[in-house]
Amino acid sequence: MAQDGIIAILKQSKKKWFDMDQLSKELGIREESIAKSISTLRRFGMINFKYVEKGNRGYGKLVYAYKK
Q: CB 3.0 to 4.6 Å from 2: which of 25, 37, 56, 65, for a disulfide?
């Protein structure tokens, strides 16, 4: 299950923030599956997330970290 893999990656690097693309590459799973698993983990408060501005392009991204 992707949720277990996401938690394992975030737990290994507790101080690092990952975006969905990085998690997808680490696990070798499509971003659609990662998105569904992340939404479940966010809903139950198992991971931290924040919005990061990407600069002058006018859009940003969500990044995720292990919740202590």
A: 37
Can you tell me the distance from the alpha carbon of 68 to that of 65, in angstroms, rounded to the nearest whole number? 9
- Distance (Å) of CA 23 to CA 3, 57, 64, 65: 11, 23, 9, 11
In tens digits, the chain (68 residues) has pLDDT values of: 689 999 999 999 988 999 999 999 999 999 999 999 999 999 999 999 999 987 776 688 899 999 97
- DSSP secondary-structure letter at 59? -
pTM of the model: 0.85
Three-state DSSP at 21 gives helix
